[in-house]
Design goal:
By secondary structure, the chain is α/β, with parallel strands linked by helices. It is built from ten helices and 15 strands. The chain folds into two domains: 139 residues, NAD(P)-binding Rossmann-like Domain (Rossmann fold), CATH 3.40.50.720; 200 residues, 2-Layer Sandwich (Dihydrodipicolinate Reductase, domain 2), CATH 3.30.360.10. A hairpin with a 6-residue loop joins strand 12 and strand 13. 47% of the residues are buried. Bound molecules: nicotinamide-adenine-dinucleotide.
Length: 363
């Protein structure tokens, strides 16, 4: 019996995952099956993977006999991640779930506990920009003492008109409805942001001291459907590791009247580093320090070693983990920790109360 990789949802993201299949080890090509209630979408998926077995529901698909190394990629909108992940785990298969993991904290906890109870792995697609060559180089520089004691991170990424469901992928209106997406741009890009910050700072605890969300208006805001998500959000956080504390100034915008900015910078007592944390091919890392009272800067280009891009990483890396190999992908409790950080930002913004995120203890 050959193992199968199952796709729940055959839309835009499923197509990108499918491009990763050619990067699996030669001689071990899995079979492919896909389920989507939308017939046209299924048809276009079979243009990309012609030999895929197609289903109009995941329920029927998961009745197929199970191979121990099967896994399911849940790449449907967030409001079905919880139910689809549970069904897949309970069918005896590992699950690679799209970001965000779920739309609420209880759902995310339930998913990780179900993975544990079924002795299966739950992987997060946040690895598109996790463990990137740039961030790994920065952690090495910090460990070598290049910036002294780190005390502050600026993590500010602002686009003026890049709102999912409006300017970006306008056909996918679920992005605009909180009950379907879980939230706006913080829920959409936060999974990558907080996975990268987790990689950079290895926290034991994350405190959210203050947070806010906003929805700046434009002349093309939809009025005939639910549009209740933020397009701009921010927070002040503290990452604690042992007795060390690093403050994080966080901001994310897909729609703002302010200027566009893209800054990832960590400051320490003897220097600072700015870097491109998203690129997996070639990332520029700039170390700034002091030379007899004068600021000096040194830039390095760090190259990746994998022959594929960010959208192919989740499938290839999860496949390696299923085989027992090492790969930079967050699974189970680690995936939950980054999701919980995002939830804590929303909770703090809604209540005005500071929040704390600690690792979830599983039974
Ligand atoms: N669009 C992007 O750039 C992008 C990038 C990375 C990750 N993602 C994530 O991927 C997921 C899917 O996003 P997308 O952009 O592919 O959306 P999409 O709207 O292009 O496709 C989603 C598909 O899921 C199908 N679907 C809905 N409910 C289903 C169910 N119960 N079972 C099976 N199929 C179902 C829909 O019919 C649709 O074809 C989201 O979690 C999103 O955050 C999107």
């Amino acid at each position: 019996m050959t193992r199968t990789i199952y796709f729940v949802g055959a839309g835009a993201t499923a197509h990108r995952h499918a491009e990763a299949l050619e990067h699996l080890p030669r001689g071990d090509r899995p079979e492919i099956a896909a389920a989507d209630p939308n017939g046209e979408t299924l048809e276009s998926f079979s243009d990309v993977v012609p030999d895929a077995r197609l289903y109009d529901s995941s329920e029927a698909m998961l009745e197929e006999p199970v191979h121990p190394d099967d896994f399911v990629i849940v790449c449907a909108p967030p409001f079905v991640h919880h139910s689809e992940t549970l069904a897949a785990l309970e069918s005896g298969r590992h699950v690679l779930c799209e970001k965000p993991l779920a739309v609420t904290q209880p759902e995310a906890v339930d998913m990780v506990e179900t993975a544990k109870a079924n002795d299966r792995l739950l992987g997060a697609c946040t690895c598109r920009h996790y463990g990137t060559p740039g961030t790994r180089h920065v952690t090495e520089l910090i460990a070598d003492g290049a910036i002294g004691d780190p005390y502050h991170v600026t993590w500010v990424h602002r686009s003026q008109r890049g709102r999912p469901g409006i300017e970006y992928q306008p056909a996918s209106k679920w992005f605009l409805d909180r009950s379907k997406s879980g939230g706006g741009i913080v829920m959409d890009w936060g999974p990558y942001d907080f996975a990268a910050l987790y990689d950079l700072l290895s926290p034991d605890v994350v405190a959210v001291r203050d947070a806010w969300t906003a929805q700046p208006e434009t002349g093309v805001d939809p009025t005939d459907l639910t549009f209740d998500v933020e397009t701009h959000g921010g927070a002040s956080l503290v990452y604690r590791t042992g007795t060390d504390e690093v403050n994080v100034t966080y901001e994310r915008a897909s729609g703002t009247h302010g200027e566009e900015r893209w800054v990832a910078e960590i400051e320490g007592t003897r220097g600072s580093i700015r870097w491109d944390w998203t690129d997996v091919d070639e990332a520029e890392v700039t170390l700034s320090s002091d030379d007899d009272g004068t600021v000096t800067e040194e830039s390095t280009t760090v190259s990746g070693t994998e022959p594929f891009g960010p959208h192919q990483r989740p499938l290839v890396f999860f496949d390696r983990r299923i085989r027992g190999e090492d790969a930079p992908i967050l699974t189970n409790e680690d995936a939950l920790f980054t999701f919980s950080t995002i939830q804590a930002i929303y909770d703090c913004a809604a209540s005005g109360e500071p929040q704390e995120v600690r690792p979830h203890a599983l039974e």
